[in-house]
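Bug #77: duplicate submission created two jobs. Keeping one. Sequence:
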Amino acid sequence: MFRFKRFTVRQPNAAMKVGTDGVLLGAWVEVRDTDRRILDIGTGTGVIALMMAQRCEGARVTALEIDGPSAADARDNVAASPWSGRVEVVECDAALYDTPERFDLIVSNPPYFVDSLLPPDSGRAAARHAASLPFGELVRTVVRLLAPGGRFALILPTDESRLFCDAARGVLYPVRITEVCSTPRSGVIRLLTEFRAEPVAEATTSCLVIDDGGFTPEYRELTRDFYLKF
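Kept job's structure:
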């Protein structure tokens, strides 16, 4: 069980548990007052979907999850949250999901192990490996479901982020990038990237260091509405 300031995530069945990546994405992505429909692809325990509901009070959030036990945990977590009336968990393959309404914001902490050996547990395999949602398929799904002027944000390790950008070239354009370092000397371990379907001149870039002998002020400020310790 993982307690946040305004909700709790129980995860007895989820293939992948709550981790720093998901919390970083949920806290970092820009939300706007005009965002009325938000989609979380690969919601897992539902943590990012719940963060979106907390941050964007006027929005309805749809959370997609292909793994049945993980979707069950997400439904339980949504039902126990203050936003159960605005968050819907849908158990399905994102590539097959369709709806007549498009989304103002799409977020994803996607599977990213592209070339490594699959773990023996099928649930963890689906959660961890891009075989369950190849980057090209994720790009097509986002483009199909994104409303005009909408944004897509995700978090990936650096090498996988380059692969995703290659798959998205010419159809999704990065507008904001944050390089994440665990310490000032660790090098970049993750990239947070926001995309649009319309070409832009150049993406804005920044860097976030998590720990410099203690959690940095920037990391504390970013996650302070969620983590109990801040």
